[in-house]
């Protein structure tokens, strides 16, 4: 593999990661999904926390993870352990990395579309489409087999400690974040990834018609 081909291949990987990152960013900011689950999953009843408090603390959690300038993690009405604070700091760092990946990938995606339309070079865009299918497909299959095991595996890969295993008595916020909600969020990420993929596929096919 030549240096140029290797660079194009790496660019395709980053572009595919960016597409998924964009879907993640949209999902994290889709507060309506959690609001819908508050009633659907009976979160006030199962958590023992009022709906007003749930919304206030959830909004803080999203703001903390999506804004670039924030102070120390401190929920409005709920206590947090030191381990819990460290975990959410680590989660925030991951989300910031996701934003950077998305930004870098958007530039590469635009470049690959330009290459396809103007120079009739389809490989980078084509490889991006292939990789964007593989990652969600594998994840989707794993979720279908066992979402719980996939959920645990994800945390073991992303975190070097077990601070994500909360003690509800010390970090009651975990009671308002049921596993089913994360399943719904994962499903939305896959759906959004598929939508972006179809848009790029249409552009890919269009470039070959011109």
From TrEMBL:
Q: Which residues cross the membrane?
A: 7-28, 94-117, 129-147, 181-205
One Pfam family hit: Lit
Q: What's in the keyword line of the UniProt record?
A: Membrane, Transmembrane, Transmembrane helix
- Keyword check for Transmembrane: yes
Spell out the protein name for this chain. Answer: TIGR01906 family membrane protein
């Amino acid at each position: 593999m030549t240096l140029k081909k290797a660079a194009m291949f790496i660019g395709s990987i980053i572009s595919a990661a960016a597409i998924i990152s964009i879907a993640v960013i949209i999902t994290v900011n889709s507060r309506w999904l959690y609001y819908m689950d508050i009633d659907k999953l009976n979160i006030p009843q199962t958590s023992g926390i009022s709906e007003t408090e749930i919304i206030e603390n959830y909004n803080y959690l999203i703001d903390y993870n999506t804004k670039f300038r924030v102070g120390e993690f401190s929920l409005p009405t709920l206590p947090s352990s030191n381990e819990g604070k460290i975990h959410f700091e680590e989660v925030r760092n991951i989300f910031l990395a996701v934003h950077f990946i998305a930004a870098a990938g958007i530039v590469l995606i635009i470049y690959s579309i330009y290459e396809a339309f103007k120079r009739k070079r389809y490989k980078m865009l084509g490889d991006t489409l292939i990789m964007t299918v593989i990652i969600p497909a594998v994840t989707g299959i794993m979720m279908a087999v066992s979402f719980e095991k996939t959920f645990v595996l994800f945390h073991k890969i992303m975190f070097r400690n077990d601070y994500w295993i909360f003690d509800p008595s010390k970090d009651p916020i975990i009671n308002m974040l049921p596993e089913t909600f994360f399943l719904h969020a994962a499903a939305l990420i896959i759906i959004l990834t598929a939508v972006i993929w179809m848009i790029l596929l249409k552009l890919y096919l269009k470039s070959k018609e011109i």
